[in-house]
Every structure is written in C-alpha cells, then in structure tokens.
Amino acid sequence: MAGLTHPADLKYTKSDEWVRVEGDQATIGITDYAQDQLGDIVYIELPWDAQTLAHEDKFGDIESVKATSELITPLSGEVVKANEALKDNPELINDSPYDDGWMVVVKLSNPAELDGLMDATQYKAYLEAR
Amino acid sequence: MTAQDTAAASLKRTPLYEQHRQLGARLVEFGGWEMPVQYGGILEEHRAVRTRAGLFDVSHMGEFRVTGAGALAFLQHLVPNDVSRLALNQALYTQLCRPDAGVVDDLLVYHLAENTYMLVVNAGNIDKDFAWIQQQSQGFEIELTNQSDETGLIALQGPVALAILQPLTKVDLSAIAYYHCMPGMVSRANCLISRTGYTGEDGFELYCSANEVTDLWQALLAAGKEHGLLPTGLGARDTLRLEAAYCLYDHELDDATNPLEAGLAWTVKLAKGDFIGHDALAKIKADGLKRKLVGIEMVERGVCRGGYAIYDGEQQIGVLTSGAPSPTLNKNIGMGYVEITQAVAGKTVQIDIRGRRTGAQIVALPFYKRSK
Asked: Residue B358, SS3?
C-alpha cells in the first residue's frame, strides 16, 4: 500500500469510506485506497437534496471509466449537504480524497455507530490483509 | 464502496506480462488473458495517444496463416470482403460470417506473398475462429496454421508514432500507406510493419516473433520517451476505439448481428461472387435493415454503458452496445442498435441509467476523426 495515505485523525469502514467527526456531524468520503482502486472517477450521484440515511443505506453511485460502484453510509442521520463541486469535477475525489473530494455531511442521529468504525492503524492492517 | 473481483490464476499471459508488472500496470481479465487495463490512468493514456503516442501490447490477438494454391479462392468463400483486390502487402478489414449473416468474428486479412495470407483475429475468439475456418476449408487446397503463440504484436499509435519509429528502422515508413505493410528490421526484431490500428490515429502495428517482442517493447519505450510516449492499456484502447466508432466483438458484433446493420456495408462485396452468408446478406439488403447502429451522446448528467436501454418516451427503441466517457469530446458517448425508423441523427432519446431515464441524443458516427 505504498504511496497511499490514510490520515490518523479519521475513522474508516470496511467498504473504504472515511469519516471526519465534528461535534454531532460527520463528513464522509472515500479513502485514498478506494480512489486508487477505482481509477479516474468520471461521475458521482449524491443526495443533492436533503435525505435521511440509515446505517448501511446506499447514499450514492460512483463511476470510474470502467466501473460503477455504490456508496454506503456507515452512519445514520440527516444529510446536511453534499459536495456540489463533484458534479462537474468528480476527479477531485482522485486528486484530493480527504479534502476537496469530501462527499456528504451528515447530522448524526446515532453517534454510537462511530464505535463500529476502524481507526487509521486498524484500516491499514485491514488493507494489508486484503 | 463494493468490492471488485480479482483475476483468476489460470489466465493466459503474453510475453510482455513481466514488463507490465514492472511498469506498475493494473491487470485484469480480458477474453481469457491477464492484460493491463491501465498503467498511470485511462484518461491520461487516452490523451497521450490523441496528442503524442501510446504503446499497446496486443500480443494476445490471434494470427493464422493460410497458404496454398486454393488460398485466394478459400478466403473469397470465407469472408464478405473482396480479397482478390489485395495487392501484395495490403490488408483489409472484414468478418467471418455464418450462413445466416451472423458474425463469428471481425478480422484483418493480409496478402503477404503469392498464395500466402495472414488472418488477425480477436484474442477471445482464437480457438473458435480456428475451428470455424478449419471446418469451412473442407474441399479447398490450403494449409491453415495457428501462429498465435509464436507471434508478438505491439501497436504504436498517435500523431508522433512515425517520428518515434523511423529512427529504429531503415524502412521508409512514410512510404507505407494506410492498410499496407512492409517487412523489415525494427531495432533488432524482424517485423512486419503494418500501417493499421484501432485508435483512429496514425500509427503502426508491429508483428514479430514472441521471443523478440520484449526487446522491441523496451526499444520502443526508450525511443519514445523524449516524445512523451506512454504505455497504454485496454481501458484507453476501448475509449479510443469508441470515439472512432470502431466495432468491438461481443458488443457491436456477435452471432445475432449482421455486418450491414453494424454500418459495415463498405466491407461487404455482394457482387464479388458467392461467400458464406451471401444470400442472407443480399436478402437483408433487399428487405431493408430493421435496426441500425447509431451514436449516442448524453445530454443530461450520466455515463451510458453497454446494455442500457434506449427510450423514446415510454417506448424502448433500442439498446446500447458500448458506452464510456469521451476524454476528447468531454462528453459521455455510446453506440447502440436502434429501430430503423427511429435511428435519426439529432433525435432526442432517454437512456435508462440505473432506473432513471436520462436525456441523450442520437448522433452520426464517428464521434472523432483525426485531422489530415
């Protein structure tokens, strides 16, 4: 997994999303490993309008040149906003998966779900074992 | 994110497999082969071919030699295009058709010497095609050999392909016309230099022996470095051929399609005499096509792909055979078969993308044609 980064201050899922917790809200995106696996990202569908998500709901679709994939939320809550910049520039996810490539912000309805996520060390170990 | 499958261990590999690994290629299964889908990235590789040059390993493709006194007569019987018009060192594009005009494969036929022809077929169809050709050759005085395993093939494609290749050979490349070839040394390899390709750019396909192809690959990469040559995988190969509106077997062509509806009437020479599928094709032509291959350009946001349905309001009028983003046009494009009465350039249609009808329009093919 040389060359891929997974910041220490984030939480991670087995389906390769990252979570940044800020108070009662969480920002969700996909990891450097995920964008590398996908290759050039050319399209994303996100909840552009408000939506209520439950743990493990599909919250969008992401497409690379060759592949389509679903986005799964690890957390339940109300979608506060989705990253509109990704409509015209989905490649931001490849270039900056943790910053400009953020996908949705969710107001958490069940913060206990955070306990089920991995930290960076656990996620890296998970990647090594794959 | 949902996980992707990984390639099985029993896949075939070309002689250049180790080169791809060393270059950090992502390898995928294609037609029973483990091939590079990309090295640095599909969009980057696509753009390199359109603006500079790309290098493709296509050694997985099949090569058959047909020789003997009956070679021309047999090939005239076997394919719908007119093989008799091939001068020495000239090639043509055609199909293997069934009696009902369904397509077994598409291929190139080269006239290499007196009574000597080379057929170049798709990698995934090598065994099927060989069996078909062998079966159809009963009663013709020919020898048929499968030289696929001994043959390496590299494609060098792009506006600077000739500039990259010329220093490596004494053969005057500018004298080789499109769809013609010339034998000659390239670097240290004995090659058949063919001015053909599958990208819509100028370029060359270099046939050599399997044990020379690795040195040739490395020599080309080295020679191309200062020109910005990139190794290019199957991902970009597909986006490039789609922009040029070239057919891909199992997408635009298969047993249930005929060459006429695929837009390949220019390769079907009904007047040359009888051949397998002749009468079926003549009838299709006389009756008129029922459907036709068209271009699709997305208007609303969304990527169209092979298998997606094409609608005119509530009525399905066709289905896509291929689809992908077009890096050159900066749009999402596709090809598909549409009912003949609806197959009109400029017509507004909708593509079913994951259950949502998404606005698109029918456009004429090709999407891209190189200048000059």
From this structure: strand
Q: Residue B169: phi, psi to the nearest 5? A: -145, 150
CA distance B332 to chain A (A): 9
Question: For position B261, what pLDDT does the model report?
Answer: 98
Is A66 part of the contact surface with chain B (CB cutoff 8 Å)? yes
Interface of B with A (CB under 8 A): 1-4, 26, 37-38, 41-44, 235, 239, 301-303, 305, 324-325, 332, 354
Give the per-residue pLDDT at A1.
58
Express each pLDDT in A78-107 by its tens digit.
999 999 999 999 999 999 999 999 999 999
Listed residue (B31, B209, B36) closest to B121, CA to CA: B31
Domains of chain B are: 17-56+150-243 (3.30.1360.120), 290-363 (2.40.30.110)
Contacts of A15 in chain B (CB under 8 A): 1-3
Q: Would the CB atoms of A70 and B2 count as touching at under 8 Å?
A: yes
- Interface ipTM: 0.93
Chain B residue numbers with beta carbons less than 8 Å from the beta carbon of A82 are none
- Tens digits of residue pLDDT in B143-172: 999 999 999 999 999 999 999 999 999 999
pLDDT digit string (tens) for A30-55? 999 999 999 999 999 999 998 999 99
How is B218-260 classified by DSSP, letter by letter?
HHHHHHHGGGT-EE--HHHHHHHHHHTT---BTTTBSTT--TT
Residue in B closest to A29 by C-alpha:
B1
Q: Flag whether residue A119 sits within 8 Å of chain B, measured between CB atoms.
A: no
Nearest CA to CA, how far is A90 from chain B (Å)? 12
- Domains of chain A, each with CATH number or no CATH: 11-121 (2.40.50.100)
Strand B116-121, strand B62-67: pairing? antiparallel
What residue type is A44 in one-letter code? I
Name the percent of chain A lying above pLDDT 90. Answer: 96
DSSP state of A38: H
Statement: residue B103 has pLDDT above 70: yes
Angstroms from B27 CA to nearest CA on chain A = 12
The residue behind tokens 């408000």 is A50
